[in-house]
Specification:
This protein is α+β, with helices and mostly antiparallel strands and 178 residues long. The chain has two domains: 2-64; 69-177, Chitinase A, domain 3. The protein contains four helices and seven strands; from the N terminus they run ααββββαβαββ.
Length: 178
């Protein structure tokens, strides 16, 4: 379905580039009109893509019967083991064990093979969604975290194992907070 939206976007963008050519308008007016139409089209396409991804995530959560909390950003998390102590905050170094899968079930990274993930909170060293999830966890916590593409690697992926517009499914354990 996402590919259909993408091709629709290309078609609409192409049509917009040719529209207005038959009307007698000043070049500056044509440019403003085309720019406005293009912005509106891009916003609509982005909304459709986000809705499609959200529907896919909802179906995934329902299939596994996970009772997840959804934040205002679209992040979903389920803490299945509560840890001890405070949650990490800006400046803390967080150490995680994890398994990272795509929504199709393919595992792309894990701490057993790739080593634990360590990062400083507030330094944008990991996906925005993963850092957001840390605010709900503390040392020893284990959770399932679903990160929509806009909070993960976005339109380009990580250029290694994570494709473009990928929804990420983390199974994460907070090993340490310093």
């Amino acid at each position: 379905m996402n590919i259909n939206i993408y091709f629709s976007f290309i078609l609409v963008t192409s049509l917009l580039s040719f529209s207005g050519c038959t009307e007698e308008k000043k070049p500056a007016q044509k440019k403003i009109l085309l720019t406005t139409q293009l912005k509106e089209t891009l916003v609509d396409v982005n909304k459709d893509l986000a809705k499609s991804e959200d529907d896919e995530i909802n179906a995934f959560v329902e299939r596994y019967n996970w009772d997840m909390i959804k934040t205002a950003t679209g992040l979903r998390y389920l803490i299945y083991k509560k840890g001890q102590g405070p949650s990490p905050h800006k400046g803390n170094i967080v150490k995680l064990n994890y398994k990272l899968k795509l929504i199709n079930g393919n595992e792309v990274y894990n701490s057993e093979k790739d080593g634990p993930k360590m990062f400083e909170m507030g330094k944008a060293q990991v996906e925005t969604g993963l850092e957001e999830a840390m605010h709900y966890m503390n040392k020893g916590s284990k959770a399932k975290v679903i990160i929509p593409s806009h909070l993960g690697f976005g339109l380009v992926g990580d250029r290694k194992k994570i494709p473009l517009k990928a929804t990420l499914i983390y199974d994460v354990e907070v090993v340490d907070i310093k």
